[in-house]
C-alpha cells in the first residue's frame, strides 16, 4: 500500500458542481477551525505508518482525521456521521472537500480500519493539535499548562451487566454454534433446557430464593461441562480443530471455575475479555465494567474553557497513585511544557511520580508543604469532575463501542480531543459575536443624533 494522496486547495471551477466556499458562510466556526488546524503536521504524523509501494493509495489524511474530529466533537456513531456528512457542507469543508458531494467519498468501515492502523500513539496527535490551536487562537495561554489537575475515571465498555448464569449460558451457546460450523455432531446441545434453566435462575434470584437459584446455576454449569467434554473428545488428536476451539474452550472452563470474590483476573464478557470490574465508591454505580482512564486538565480556567491536557487508558486497574510514573512524562511530552504543580485527590497518596516531580504533587487532606496559595488552589481540584462529566455525556466516553484494548485507548484520547475541539468551536462563535457587537456599536456611534 502506498502513501495517501493528500488534498490541496486548487481553486478550480466546475460548471456542474458548486464550490463549497461559495455556498457556505466562511465565518462559520467549523470553517475557522478547519483554517486553524495545521493539516500538514497531521499528515506528516499519520503518514509514517505508510510506505511507498504497489497498491491502491489510502484515503487522504485530512479526510480521515476530520472524520475522527467530527465523530467525537458531536458524539456521533460511524453510521450517523456518514449520514450527516452527505447533508452538511461544513463537515465536507472540514474534511478537505472543494466541491459539495451528494455521495460518500469513503466507506464506513474505512474509519474503523484507519483507527486500528493509527493506534493510540498517533491518534494522540489530534489531542496535541487541539491544544496547539487553542494556544494559537488565544483560547489558552502556554503557561496555563504548567499547573494541572489529575484524576481517574472508568470508561465503561459496551457489554451487558455480567452474571454467572448469563456468562455460562452464553459460553454454551458459542461452543454449540462453533461446533455446528465445524461439522461436529454433539450428543446434545441443551438448547431448550439450557434456556429454561437460565429463566429459572433469574426468577429465583429476583424472588431471593437463593437455594433454588443455586440449583438452577449448577444445572447450567453441568450442561456447559458436558458440552466441553464432548467437544474435547471429538477434537482429540486433530491439531487444526484444537487450534480453532482452544480460545472458546479456555473461556468456557474459566467461566465454570471462577467464583465470587476470587483474586486475580476474571472474565466478565466473552466477546470483550479485556473488561475489568472497577469500583469507584459510587452509590448509584458500585461497580463499573470497562477500563480505568486518567484525565488531566488545567488548574486555572483558560479564556476558552477548561481544556483537557491528557487522557490515557490504564489497563489492569492500577492504583491511582501508581499511574503518575507514566502519566506525567507522557503529558509533558504532549503539551511540550514542564509541569510545575499537580493537584490530585486522596486516592493519589503514596504516589510514584518521577523523582523530579515528587515534591510537585499535592493531594487532598495533605498537611505538610502547604502554603496559603496552594491551599487556595486545592479548592480548584474538583474542577476536573465536570470535565470528566462532559467527556462521558457529550463525547462518547460513557460507553465505549471500539473493540479491544486498543479501542479503549483510542476512544479515551479521541474523547478528550473532541471535547477540546468543542470548546474551540464555542470560542470561535463567541469571538464572532464579539466582533459583530463591536461593529454594531461603532456604527451606532457614527450615526449623528438629530435634535428634535
Automatic annotation (TrEMBL):
UniProt superkingdom: Bacteria
Stretches assigned to the Transposase IS4-like domain: 282-421
Alphabetized InterPro entries for the sequence: Transpos_IS5-like, Transposase_11, Transposase_InsH_N
The Transposase InsH N-terminal domain, residue ranges: 19-117
GO molecular function, one term: DNA binding
GO biological process, one term: DNA transposition
Record-given protein name: Putative transposase
Organism, as annotated: Rhizobium favelukesii
